[in-house]
Design a protein that fits this description.
Elements lengths: L55 H16 L4 E6 L6 H11 L8 E5 L11 H11 L11 H12 L5 E5 L4 H4 L9 E6 L11 E5 L5 H12 L3 H4 L1 H10 L4 H12 L6 H15 L8 H12 L3 H10 L6 E3 H8 L2 H11 L4 E2 L1 H4 L3 E3 L2 H14 L2 H26 L25 H10 L1 H11 L5 H10 L3 H5 L2 H18 L2 H17 L3 H17 L3 H17 L3 H17 L3 H17 L3 H17 L3 H18 L2 H17 L3 H17 L3 H17 L6 H13 L27
Parallel strand pairs: 1-4, 1-5, 2-3, 3-4
Antiparallel strand pairs: 6-8, 7-8
Helix pairs in contact: 1-2, 3-4, 6-8, 6-9, 8-10, 9-11, 10-11, 12-14, 12-16, 13-14, 17-18, 17-19, 17-20, 19-20, 19-22, 20-22, 20-23, 22-23, 23-24, 24-25, 25-26, 25-27, 26-27, 27-28, 27-29, 28-29, 29-30, 29-31, 30-31, 31-32, 32-33
Length: 736
Amino acid sequence: MRGHEHSNNDLSGTVHGFVVQAGSVQGGIHVSGGAAREEVPPPWQLPPSVRITDRTEELRALEVHRCRATEDGHPTLAAVSGLGGVGKTAVALAWLHTLRPEFPGGQLYADLGAQAPDGPADPGEVVGRFLRALGVPTGQVPPALGERVALYRSLTADRRLVVLLDDAATAAQVRPLLPAGRCVTAVTSRRRMPGLSLDGGHVLHLDPLSPEAAVELLDSTLADGRVAAQPEEARALVLLCAGLPLAVRIAGARLAARPRQGITAMVRALSEEHERLEALAIEGDHDVRAALDLSYQGLPPAAARLYRLLGLHPGREFGGPVARALLGEEAVDALDALYDANLLVDVAEASGGERYRFHDLVRLHAAERAAQDESGEERRAALLRIGHHYLANARRAEELVEPERDSLERDFEPECVVEEDLGQRGAEAALDWLEGELPNLMAVVRIARPVGAPELAWQLTDALWPLFPRRKRYREWHEAHQEGLLAAEEAGNEEAVCRMLTSGALGKLASGAPAEGLEMFERAAASFQERGDALGHARTLNYRGLAHQRLGRPDRAAELFARAADTLPACGDLRSGALARFNLADVAFSQGRYEDAVVDAEAARLTLEAAGDPYNAARAAGLTGRACVGLGRLGHAEAELSAALSALRAQAAEFEAARVLGGLAQLSERRGQPHQARQFYREALSLYSSVGRSESADAEEARARLAALEPAPPRPPDPEGPEPRPSGEAQGDAGE
């Protein structure tokens, strides 16, 4: 398997096993040598508006609050609460869409999933998505929540944008997602959120529609004169819907599909459903459930079955290919029928492509119908079709990103697979697809063991490997490998156990938990040795060395790197052996043994160039150059450092480029060129900051050396005036 190894808390490059990068940017927008940042268009993520009725006062209250906050120089925050189906999101969207001309900075949207099957969304993951939407390259999104929030607030301080945080669970979930400056944020939740008042929020509670407004909504849904012809029956129908816009629209959609049916028949049927569902009432949701049952009963058989099966989908959103994987080509018409019945929400405008989701009450209803109308075996088969569909497409994405990777075997039923659109941009498009589907992919990992398919957990986790280090998805990295490890252990698959241990341990190193990573590497090493896998065991030598290096044990790290450098080539892995030798050189450099560092780094570079690994070859050249500065071989140092900087900039490896700039600065110091040295140090510090590494040891050293080189501040003028010069002394010095 291909991957990358770094030293100095920076895992990246390519090694047999795994790819870990802590300081390089893979794609996106880059800062290189002071070049201008690529212009990123504003994000426009809000879903489309839907028709609303009789919400004039609510919209006016929201706008009055915004104007007042603007006059006071504060950001605008509004929290809209109410029953499920009462139209909270519709009101928020109607308001926010009108603000677009005044807020050219863009629109951000997040479904916070208070009612989602996999639990509420993690604020750190959401703010990470916001940062990427605002133009922060994936590799520069900080790993910690606090750092992400600080960067988010900095980026929004002078930007006029609107944010919709939909279906929030708590005020604590919302607070990290509030932008700075004079932005507008709307929050929707079933719960009233008085806590947001402390953050300057205006709390607005939506009541159900009045009967008159609900009748107006029904009339606009039908648009065929039946409401005017049967006003009393229309009023009775909307009363049964309890004034909830969702229930009115669902009932109206069913009537619209039956133009010859009178409203009276609908009233009679809905009354019967009310009585049946009364025991299921939750906060008034029985009104929606009654309408849902009637709509479900009127669906064509294929659409009804797709509705049930999609109710089992473990994630919040799904694309058309998933529906086709469940039902074949019949799914195309079935999706149209579900959409026409107001049972599906089209989210394509917000997320791109063919995407749908259920309102949370509709999803619950669909899952209930699946439990009632599908056997246990049929439900399990549907979940496996969903899982195999995602696994097969994740494998396709994996092959686009790392075509030579030695991955675990993938088991899936070919008939369950419909190819997803992975875009036309090769590896980057494949990574975008993996990241966009990550909530669904993680949901499949979580359900694999409960549905009796543990192999799905570790195989999907392994297929996700190219995403985790490149897009810095540390939380999912840890969770997926933990679940994959449990599944592999329960199944007794030692090959999968070792893969979950080693790739999971690299995630621990990348996120700053080397002790946990070392424990996992050592367990994998013991398993490789017990099974007689010499190559697998040799690779763990290098990984364990990296863990010891991060734990501040350079001598133990050097011992392991030396063993790996000798053993890996003997096992046929020349490239990984060269990376181990590079890591050995790095330890020597940190200990001031510059001659040893040059010997090992140059040997590593030659092998890495022959292996077709220009990134790590450039890192080795940079280390050689820095060591030559220490040895006083300034001409050789300049050649190596200049070549390394050019190669690393071409690959947007900002962290490594910053380290080389530090070497060039020290070279300039040795040559008595303080002005040039200061320029190199400032550029290096800018790059460290751009990749979230401004607190690293390298950055601290650059900052200290720059401070020592800064010229002393000018002396304050003497309040009594300058002393008179002797008559023959020059007045002024043009040379300074």
